């Protein structure tokens, strides 16, 4: 059924697209059509809100509907705020436009109301308050019309590019916006409800051990705060060498501020809270950006914010990557960048704005550098389009940007050095081939409504890297909306953003269902650039999500404005019909990406040996060696640390660090020494081994290097093969509570 509806939506969009393209054709001057014309609905003594209920009839030729609507929106906002009304712009006469006599009548009526005097620098109003039709015989630039769909274009003459981009103040915050934020918060809580329902016993198992890894980051930050230690490195894992926290996705921008909560309630709650904040705050901030800078209908912005905050990619990373969920500063940074265009700003105000921008960028660097790098790529793509079309004033923005860069360098210069040149640092990281298959672009993600649980298994690295999976209906909607709204520079930028980032995500070899496709890849052009060599190509589709959201927002905004009437197949499309068609198309487009709750499984229980405090008798100032040591597959020992208040370190672990070769190459986990490698092979093969005398000597030396106080074998399924294996090295164990242990303090 969904495909039948999708086909109907595509047909409808095609019809509307055809009409929209016809509207761009200008005609020679002709007299207005005469006929029975319904009233506009403007009362005798109008108020600003009455401008939202106006109905204009269409004629064979008339004023451009989109430009008229945008101008009336600007008049309404200025009138309601008691500000000077914008000057009436020149307007091209188009096929099937608004009745010119009705538009002239409305503007004349509005101009007689208690209006503020026009600003001195505004162009004088034309006679009778009418919008002046552009001379069709004069020079025009049909390939670069002023974009009536963009809020910044209100009041700009069609067909003429202003010397400087128009700056429109951001839309104010209103009481309903708080309800939207609460709604996003409730949606995020529902998405994580299984995790919140079992904080200590449950974990997001589809993220493998990523949740436990981030819980350890939160614990390491809390321990550093409690002990007044260096927060940039921790020896709680990989003892005694430690872990460079800045060389890992340690989200210090959140883990340090939330350290008191971690110390009070444990890392499980902190992790769940950060996940919730990532979903809710990211959606809320994108919603605010759409409202403030695009000046769209709030209902449209709600849908756009929800798509960005709860997209399949975000839900996928929600399985254990809070560093990618915490993107709420990205739209705030974009908002501050756009604000740098504000005219008449003093030097002091520019410096202050630049410092604020630098502080925001620095904070985002502390939370997630990769997310910021990806966002920078998206900002660059959109910025190029905006600059080429005269919508961004780079010259005016440059001083504030330079101040922001300087602020960031001052605040993050040393941490950046520590990340790449400090203890346990690395300069490059080998990553597996991680590109999106073409089928992944329109496929179904795992945690989406009505999807096959194994739908994405063969098209993604794992359940945390389902970075695309937009569904066919959303692509069809995006194509249709782009065709219909192509005159909008915002739409052009969003469409280019989706296209370029999706193309980049395909990697060096483009495949379809794992079969090579003879299409030129875009990834090789950037893969060798600094920093890009450590990125996963598949993650570039994270930037495409806001592009899809903008297309949805702009399309919905057009439909939700009551007075707009599009000409379709020679007839006027009634606003209600336009709304029904658009809302239906949006619903069909979003149905395949509606998320379901994240899956939670039970984590192994913490041994009584640690919950009872018995461990304190066996640990002095050395480390605990878990059999086998923690790694990407098994991080249960991290829970032991959390239960014990982070008062003992562990050998090896799951983190990013140097591979031990001295080449600057990084790896996941620590370079294994003989004893840990031997145990890993036993677990993998499922067969017990007896150590040789030579191995016993080497393995005991390993324990001395690690400064191990006690070797602990917890209750586990393969305990029967691990116990005799370790006993062949260290002798028979001692049973304490529910663990088997070997006190090896004498080997140090």
Query: Largest sheet at a glance?
Result: 4 strands, mixed
The helix/strand class is alpha+beta
Helix content: 40-55%
- Low-pLDDT runs of 5+ residues are 1-37, 115-165, 564-571
Biggest β-sheet: strands ordered side by side in the sheet? 12-15-17-16
Beta-strand portion reads: 5-15%
Query: How many structural domains can be distinguished in the coordinates?
Result: 3
Mean pLDDT: 85
- Counted by DSSP, the helix tally is 26
Q: Could you give the count of β-strands?
A: 17
From the alpha carbons, calculate the radius of gyration and give it in angstroms. 31 Å
Shape: elongated
Tell me the distance between the termini: 70 Å
What does this entry look like structurally?
This protein has 748 residues and is α+β, with helices and mostly antiparallel strands. The chain folds into three domains: 25-141, no CATH class; 175-593, no CATH class; 608-747, no CATH class. Helix content is 47%, strand content 8%. The chain contains 26 helices and 17 strands. Strands 12-15-17-16 form a four-stranded mixed beta sheet, covered by helices on one side. The chain has a three-stranded mixed beta sheet with strand order 6-14-13, with no helix packed on it. A two-stranded antiparallel sheet has the order 1-2. Strand 7 (511-512) and strand 8 (515-516) form a beta hairpin. Helix 19 runs antiparallel to helix 20. It starts with a helix and ends in a 5-residue tail after the last strand. Residues 1-37, 115-165 and 564-571 have low confidence and may be disordered.
């Amino acid at each position: 059924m969904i495909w039948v509806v999708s086909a109907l939506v595509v047909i409808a969009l095609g019809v509307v697209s055809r009409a929209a393209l016809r509207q761009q054709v200008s005609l020679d001057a002709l007299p207005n059509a005469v006929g029975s014309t319904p009233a506009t609905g403007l009362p005798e003594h109008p108020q600003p809100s009455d401008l939202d209920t106006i109905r204009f009839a269409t004629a064979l030729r008339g004023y451009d509907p989109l430009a008229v609507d945008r101008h009336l929106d600007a008049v309404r906002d200025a009138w309601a705020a008691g500000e000077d009304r914008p000057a009436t712009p020149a307007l091209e006469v188009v096929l099937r436009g608004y009745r010119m006599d009705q538009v002239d009548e409305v503007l004349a009526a509005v101009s007689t109301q208690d209006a503020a005097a026009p600003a001195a620098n505004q162009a004088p109003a034309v006679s009778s308050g009418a919008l002046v039709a552009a001379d069709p015989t004069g020079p025009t630039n049909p390939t670069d019309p002023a974009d009536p769909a963009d809020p910044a274009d209100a009041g700009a003459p069609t067909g003429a590019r202003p010397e400087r981009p128009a700056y429109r103040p951001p839309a104010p915050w209103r009481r309903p916006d708080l309800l939207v934020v609460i709604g996003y918060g409730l949606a995020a809580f529902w998405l994580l409800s299984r995790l919140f329902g079992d904080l200590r016993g449950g974990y997001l198992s589809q993220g493998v051990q990523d949740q436990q890894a981030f819980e350890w980051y939160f614990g390491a930050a809390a321990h550093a705060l409690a002990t007044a230690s260096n927060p940039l490195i921790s020896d709680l894992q990989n003892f005694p060498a430690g872990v460079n926290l800045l060389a890992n996705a340690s989200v210090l921008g959140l883990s340090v501020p939330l350290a008191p909560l971690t110390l009070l309630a444990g890392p499980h709650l902190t992790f769940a809270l950060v996940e919730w904040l990532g979903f809710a705050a990211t959606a809320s901030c994108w919603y605010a950006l759409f409202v403030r800078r695009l000046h769209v209908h709030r209902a449209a912005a709600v849908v756009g914010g929800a798509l960005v905050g709860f997209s399949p990619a975000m839900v996928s990373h929600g399985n254990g990557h809070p560093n990618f969920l915490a993107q709420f500063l990205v739209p705030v940074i974009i908002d501050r960048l756009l604000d740098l265009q504000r005219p008449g700003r003093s030097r002091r105000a520019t410096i202050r704005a630049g410092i604020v921008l630098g502080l925001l960028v620095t904070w985002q660097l502390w939370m997630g550098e990769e997310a910021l790098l990806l966002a920078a790529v998206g900002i660059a793509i959109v910025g190029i389009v905006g600059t080429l079309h005269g919508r961004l004033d780079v010259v005016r923005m440059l001083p504030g940007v330079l101040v922001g860069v300087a602020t960031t360098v001052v605040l993050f210069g040393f941490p950046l050095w520590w990340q790449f040149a400090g203890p346990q640092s690395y300069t490059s990281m080998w990553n597996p081939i991680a590109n999106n298959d073409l089928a992944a672009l329109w496929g179904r993600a795992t945690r989406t409504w009505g999807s096959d649980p194994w739908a994405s298994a063969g098209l993604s690295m794992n359940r945390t890297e389902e970075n695309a999976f937009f569904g066919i209906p959303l692509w069809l909607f995006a194509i249709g909306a782009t065709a219909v709204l192509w005159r909008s520079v915002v739409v052009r930028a969003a469409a280019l953003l989706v296209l370029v980032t999706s193309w980049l995500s395909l990697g060096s070899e483009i495949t379809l269902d794992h079969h090579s496709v003879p299409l030129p890849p875009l990834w090789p052009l950037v893969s060798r650039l600094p920093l890009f060599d450590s990125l996963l190509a598949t993650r570039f589709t994270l930037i495409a999500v806001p592009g899809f959201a903008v297309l949805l927002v702009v399309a919905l905004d057009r439909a939700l404005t009551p007075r707009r009437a599009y000409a379709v197949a020679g007839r006027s499309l009634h606003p209600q019909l336009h709304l029904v068609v658009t809302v239906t198309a949006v619903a069909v487009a979003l149905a395949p990406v509606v998320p379901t709750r994240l899956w939670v499984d039970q984590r192994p229980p913490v041994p009584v040996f640690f919950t009872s405090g018995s461990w304190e008798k066996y640990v002095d100032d050395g480390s605990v060696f878990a059999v086998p040591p923690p790694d990407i597959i098994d991080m249960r020992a991290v829970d032991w640390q959390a239960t014990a208040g982070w008062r003992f370190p562990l050998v090896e672990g799951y983190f990013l660090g140097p591979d031990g070769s001295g080449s600057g190459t990084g790896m996941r986990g620590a370079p294994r020494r003989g004893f840990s490698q031997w145990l890993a092979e036993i677990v993998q093969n499922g067969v017990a081994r007896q150590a040789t005398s030579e191995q016993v000597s080497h393995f005991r030396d390993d324990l001395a290097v690690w400064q191990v106080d006690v070797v602990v074998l917890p209750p586990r399924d393969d305990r029967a093969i691990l116990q005799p294996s370790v006993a062949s090295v260290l002798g028979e164990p001692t049973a304490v509570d529910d663990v088997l242990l070997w006190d090896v303090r004498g080997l140090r």
